[in-house]
Amino acid sequence: MSVYSGPVFDMARQQFDGIADYLDIDIKYRDRLFLPKRAIAVTCPIHRDDGSVAVFQGYRVQHHLSCGPTKGGTRFAASVDMGEVAALAVWMSWKCALTGLPYGGGKGGIAVDTTTLSPRELEALSRRYMQEMIPFVGPDVDVMAPDVGTNEQVMAWFMDTYSVHHGHAVPQIVTGKPLAAGGTAGRREATGRGVVHLIGRAAQEISMPLAGATAIVQGFGNVGSVAALELARRGVRIVGVSDHSACYYDPAGLPVEALDAHVREHRCLAGFATQCSIDPRELLVQPCDILVPAALERVIDADTAARLQCRILAEGANGPTTPDADRVLRERGNDVFVIPDILCNSGGVVVSYFEWVQGIQKIFWEEDEVNKRLLVILDRAFDQVIARARRDKVGHRTAALAIGVDRVLQTKMARGLFP
């Protein structure tokens, strides 16, 4: 029996088993390498505004601490469960190893629909979750960050709750904070910026000019909206966007700045227009040069993969492409250039690392410095993935995962197993 279950965790296990076979990892090391070191489940009761008491289930998974503290986001979403959180922590481990960060993977969350919470209730739930996590987290143990359903404000509440408990400010306990609370310039935009930079690298690889290209962005949250805006600034025509509330497609192009302003005011795409609406299930397979799935896991299955009409698949979300879909993409040959998730969306954790370092040292960098350092790390990881893929004649996801998994394995082997 395992405490981890569900399609997302099964997908992560399937990916790992394939990479373990590819790397010829001894069977006796595989469970130690894959299964999380620690999993925490907590109960988070809060007072509702109407005087009632509501109870929410919270989770945190720390995959491994062999390279340093664990690092990862905290997700507030109705779908959150232990299996999903564990899979995301595992993927974060490979992501950190691929980019050379001194972290293991962590992830957490609460099973809650945040649209049902008032601002006061959201603060109460955020603070209660961190209060329950205090025995298990710390700047040298596990460092939290934003994810789906959380933002800079939630991170500030996390930091304040932890700091009050310790009697002094501890800004390095979370990243993705507001600048006023010790955050770093460029963190909010880092993931989307990284996605677009790597799209640019991919476009160079296939000799495709960005100016005049077309793109579809599924998921218009923090990652998707920044990616759409950055692509538009590079001359890319955004022909499709979606979020949980609405889906729009127009081959002539959509007004990205107006869409972003609408979302900032109304918190979702719904109500922006009616004439460009399309079935969300069909958005991913519309003709485009660049497809950016930036929502949730498992949105591209085998059937969708066979129907994709993009030239570059840039995975802004974690785990958007199932293993069955990967097989279909491999069978299609080189007609779709895949930028795998652990590379494509790694900009966020890279700049989170910068924020953590700055918090420890109490020395802060200008945004230009942050962005410059970010691009150096992304370029290095991209070059290593492409080189590995060409050398071994494997897909980009296999190459990226192999680099990450092998680095963690080497660290664990060097440190040994405590008697």
From TrEMBL:
Residues the record lists as binding substrate: K71, K95, S352
Active site per database record: K107
Site entry: Important for catalysis: D147
Sequence ranges assigned to domain Glutamate/phenylalanine/leucine/valine/L-tryptophan dehydrogenase C-terminal in this UniProt record: 184-416
Keywords, alphabetical: NAD, Nucleotide-binding, Oxidoreductase
GO function terms (MF aspect): glutamate dehydrogenase (NAD+) activity; nucleotide binding
Gene3D superfamilies to which the protein is assigned, alphabetical: Leucine Dehydrogenase, chain A, domain 1, NAD(P)-binding Rossmann-like Domain
Gene Ontology BP annotations: L-glutamate catabolic process
Pfam families for the chain: ELFV_dehydrog, ELFV_dehydrog_N
SUPFAM superfamilies (UniProt xref): Aminoacid dehydrogenase-like, N-terminal domain, NAD(P)-binding Rossmann-fold domains
Keyword Flavoprotein: no
Signal peptide as annotated in the record: none
Binding, NAD(+): T191, N222
Family: Belongs to the Glu/Leu/Phe/Val dehydrogenases family.
Cited PANTHER family: GLUTAMATE DEHYDROGENASE, GLUTAMATE DEHYDROGENASE 1, MITOCHONDRIAL
Protein name per the record: Glutamate dehydrogenase
Species this protein is from: Acetobacter garciniae
Lineage: Bacteria, Pseudomonadati, Pseudomonadota, Alphaproteobacteria, Acetobacterales
